[in-house]
Amino acid sequence: MGGVGVIDQGLNWVSAHVDYLWVAAGLTFLFIGGEGLVRGATALARKLKLSNLIIGLTVVGFGTSMPELMVSLQAALKDTPDIVVGNVVGSNIANILLIMGMGALIYPMDSKSAGIQRDVAVMIVATIGLLVLAYRGGIDRLDAQIMLGCLIAYLVSVYVLERRNPEPEHAVHSSVTEMGIFMAMAWVSLGLLALVVGADSLVKGATNIARDFGISEAVIGLTLVAVGTSLPELAVTLIAALKRQSDIALGNLIGSNIFNILGILGITGLIAPIAIDARFTQVDIPIALGVAVTAGLCVYIFGKIGRLIALGFLAAYAGYMAFLLMI
């Protein structure tokens, strides 16, 4: 009987804490995936003779946004637009203030690259476009098609410009440069898979925990879901910062923010029109625009995201989180 009682207690404990176990498993997969993705993407860039910036913006930047895309698609199908918008807007704010801030604390990020400066401008314009659509009340299918068209045009132009005017690359560790193309693609694929699995586990557990405390869907989207789906970007950025690969780190975050607006909202809007609540129009999207403009000013004026700026970003994010939990 004693053994049965112990088993029952163990099962009861697991049942009561299953959401926390999902969170722990998610974090583990995210960091494993981040390491694999950066390793494979860097090697792939060398084998295909592409710049770190291109790989950061596409394979890494868009790849790490797959959790946001999956969550937004599920939310659209379940008719919860606040989760869709909150996820994208909250992720974009977290990518700059939280993740860029943490990465730059580890290693200041050089942003003098013409490619970085160009893409920061695209991020700002995309955010302005989202604010305009929000004041109109939402995103319909025509808007979604235009957004996806803009994303495709952006990708083509980046590829053409980078091939025409390649930027100098930093040295990469020999174990990465010696990796074969198929091994590099395997690292990228397995890294992306681990990131998706990890993000799904984390969001599942975190969302259930938040709802147990009676938090609204908008706040869940802006906080737990946004941060949870941004953890792939965090993992990739921290690992890239440790490897002193600023192009991968910044390209990842800027590419993710562009894809979040043009790609995720574009794809989701094709499936179901997205109504944007007034609170996003009046508060959160203007904050996201302010954050994007601030990052742009730092890039253009200082040419890098240093540790002092990083501390300012982190303090601003802490203030934003406190504001969300108070309203």
Task: Give a concise summary.
With 327 residues, this protein is mainly α.
Mean pLDDT, rounded to whole units?
84
**Rg on CA atoms, Å:** 20 Å
The main sheet orders its strands as: 1-4
Report the portion of residues in β strands.
under 5%
CATH architecture designation:
Up-down Bundle
Task: State the name of the first-level CATH class.
Answer: Mainly Alpha
How far is the first residue's CA from the last residue's CA? Answer: 51 Å
Instruction: Give the CA-based shape.
Output: globular
The number of E-state strands comes to: 4
Query: In the residues, how many domains can be counted?
Result: 1
- What is the string of helix and strand elements? HHHHEHEHHHHHEHEH
Number of helices: 12
Biggest β-sheet strands, sense, barrel:
2 strands, antiparallel
Q: Helicity, in percent?
A: over 70%
The CATH superfamily label reads NCX, central ion-binding region
Structural class: mainly alpha
Low-confidence segments, ≥5 residues, pLDDT <50? 170-175
Please describe what this structure looks like.
The chain has 327 residues and is mainly α. 84% of the residues lie in helices and 2% in strands. The chain is globular. The chain has one domain: A middle domain of Talin 1 (Up-down Bundle), CATH 1.20.1420. Helix 2 packs across helix 10, helix 4 runs antiparallel to helix 10 and helix 4 packs antiparallel against helix 12. It contains 12 helices and 4 strands. A two-stranded antiparallel ribbon has the order 1-4. It comes from Asticcacaulis endophyticus. Its main location: membrane. It is a multi-pass membrane protein. One of its GO terms (cellular component) is plasma membrane.
